[in-house]
Amino acid sequence: MATATLTRALFATAALLGATQAMAAEPFNGPYIGAEAGWQQDKLRSTLTTGGTSFSANDKVDSFAYGAQLGYDFKVSPSFVIGAEANLTGDSGKIRVDGSTADAGRTFGLTARAGVLATPETLIYAKGGWVNGRFTFDDGTDRASQNRDGWTLGGGVERMLTQNISARVEYRYSDFASFRETLGTDSVSAGFDRHQVMAGVNFRF
Asked: Which domains does the chain have, with CATH numbers?
């Protein structure tokens, strides 16, 4: 009886392992975690009011961006995938205007995506959702920071490299709500928008 019980246990374990392997081998279906890096351009639309006089400007900076993402894909048909993703990014750039700096710091986003499988291993997708950015202004004397909500849209291509590793390239556009800050006797109203081209690698469970 012990032998029969052991045999059944071995068959059950083999069946479970087989099912796990089959699930893991299914492209774009299940959870993943990854990292990304690339190019970012922040554009600042600002108006500075000082001494009763207002000055408007449009400035931009190109920088290196980096981050990490966590998501889940669900293959709803042989050729269609939907999913959700959370990501956290940072960058190396600051916008400098007449001795003052505007720094777009960390950004957190929650997005949904939908895509079509061009091949069983290649996904072409669009994505969009909510973002929140941390922005800091410094005029050399005073410093002020705000968290601002916004929206993002983009798309890309992702390809399976191995059973568990995929690589992707995507473009994202983000727009953050305008806001006003007081720096000493001056006031600044500003809005940010952002372009990103990011390359990423995901490990899929």
From this structure: 27-204 (2.40.160.20)
DSSP assigned state of 25 = H
| pLDDT tens for each residue of the chain, 205 residues long | 444 554 454 445 445 444 444 444 589 999 999 999 999 999 887 776 666 666 666 788 899 999 999 999 999 999 999 999 999 999 988 887 767 787 888 999 999 999 999 999 999 999 999 999 998 878 777 787 889 899 999 999 999 999 999 999 999 999 998 777 676 667 777 778 999 999 999 999 9
Interatomic CA distance for residues 70 and 103, integer angstroms: 25
pTM summary value? 0.79
DSSP, res 13: H
